[in-house]
Amino acid sequence: MKLPRLRLAWLWLRKYWWRLWLGERVKLLAELAGMAGNAGVLALVAVAFGHVWAAWLVAVCAAAVALSLVRRRWWRMHRYRTFRFPLRDHPQVAAVIADAARTAGFAATPKVWLTSRCFIFATRKLNGRPALIIGLPMLIGMSERDLHAVLARELLGAKRLRRHEHWALSLYVRGEAAWAEQACQSLRRSIWAEARTLLGADRLRTASWAEAVVDSAFDWYVTRYAAHFMHRGSARDLYGGFRWKVEHDGLLGRISPQTIIDDELDEGPWGTGELPDGMRLHMRDRLEWRLARHLGGLMLDETGRASYRLGELPDGEWGDVLEAEREAVLEAAAVLLDRRPATDADIIALASAGRAAELDWWHAHAICPHPSRDVCVLVPLVDVSLRRKGYVHEQVFAQRVLVGPSGDRVNVVERAKEIVGG
After folding, report:
1. pLDDT tens digits for 114-162?
2. Of 270, 300, 330, which closes a domain?
3. Per DSSP, what are the bridge partners of residue 112?
4. Could you tell me if residue 307 is inside a domain?
């Protein structure tokens, strides 16, 4: 299947350039013009009747509305923004990027931007120079060797693909060009085949597996720790918490067996072994906070200036999160059993019978580090039960371990496994 260049160019302009860049600016100007016109008419009427104070009041209200419009549209204009990567501050990463570019056949070192999300994307500027967008979680969780392989794979695609083919792939992965699936899959297979020849099949599989594991781990981490508090603003220690879980809590190793990778390119079998240590990259605190603020804005479709630290939230608020999860599990059990109210005993019976996967709740199909779905549904029940007895978490980013009033320690996940096993 040939890719129609004109159709792709039109889709790219309409779906990307207009919707994400020019469209929001035009809408903002139109809104400001309409608001200014209405305010001007009201002010002139007020002056004509001798009410100068009313004209000033109209002007103040118009300015407030204008600021609100700019703030709302400004976020939408910059929702997919990226941040320049300070390569001078991180020579180790700069060396990996430069070597990956040479491996892919580029003479120039790519320009690099950071994103708050967990992906790696390569493109080519109009002058032919490569450019990279790298998610900070990848720099925290991936090893140098795996990062090098994934960067080389993406840069190879940026070098080999023509511009309209690159547009097609970008639109396809966003779900905007399903009609081009056959051609896009053919392009992807050709790039992966060349990357396999260049890097070696085992290395490509290992690196792509590590990429998927880090992506799954960060997605679970944000859902478990940050999503419940996004309405507060941005967590300054969002990425620091993820770094701690990777470095000290074995998150990648625990979530690796549960990770599912898209096998449409027939590159499997994918590994499930132990991953090498990640780079655990540290950025300046302000840059990490800006990235966390941006991620929160993406999740809420708005952004604010407030900031807080996950590590400073009181224990009771974390208990409320688990209470909400317990209620969701009980509601799912009530629907499944057609009996209200469902009880903890019902959940235990379902989990012990291996039927937890039948429960339809918000976490049912998400990847998590728990060893099974049966254990997963019991974790909030065990956690809430212990917290009601006075147990608290010792480390905010390792809440599966609770400490009792007498100093005894209970691993919530291990306790749930014992219940499932009888």
Report:
1. 999 999 999 888 788 899 999 999 999 999 999 999 999 999 999 988 8
2. 300
3. 132
4. no
b/e per residue 106-141 (b: at least 16 CB within 10 A): beebbebebbbbbebbbbbeeeeebbbbbbbbbbbb
Please give the tally of structural domains in the chain: 3
Q: Which residues contact 39 (CB under 8 A, 6 or more apart)?
A: 58, 59, 61, 62
Return all residues near 66 (Cβ < 8 A) that are at least 6 apart: 32, 35, 36
Work out the percent of the chain whose per-residue pLDDT is above 70. Answer: 84
Q: Which residues contact 205 (CB under 8 A, 6 or more apart)?
A: 267, 268, 270, 271
Are 379 and 413 in contact by the 8 Å Cβ rule? The answer is yes
d(CA 338, CA 99): 60
- Mean pLDDT of the region 33-55: 75
Domain of residue 146, residue span = 83-300
Do 121 and 54 reside in the same domain of the chain?
Answer: no
Is residue 122 located within the same domain as residue 231? yes
Which of 22, 45, 78 terminates a domain? The answer is 78
- The answer to whether 256 touches 270, Cβ cutoff 8 Å, is no
In the 8-state DSSP scheme, what is residue 18?
A: I
Same-domain pairing of 65 and 102: no
223 and 281 share a domain? yes
Tell me which of 78-82, 329-333, 415-419 is least confident.
78-82
Please indicate, yes or no, whether residues 131 and 168 belong to a single structural domain of this protein: yes
Q: Which of 17-21, 120-124, 253-257, 328-332 has the highest mean pLDDT?
A: 328-332
260 vs 256 pLDDT, higher one = 256
What is the arrangement of strands in the sheet containing 392-393, beginning at the earlier edge strand? Answer: 392-393, 401-403, 409-411
Strand-strand pairing, 392-393 and 401-403: antiparallel
Say how many CA atoms lie within 13 Å of 309 toward its Cβ. Answer: 7
Q: Quick one: 23 and 162 in the same domain?
A: no
The model's pLDDT over 344-357, given as tens digits with 9 standing for 90+, comes to 999 999 999 999 99
With H, G, I as helix, E, B as strand and everything else as coil, classify residue 99. helix
* 51 & 198 share domain: no
Assess whether the previous peptide bond of 371 is cis (omega < 30° from 0).
no
Q: Are residues 232 and 178 in the same domain?
A: yes
pTM value > 0.70: yes
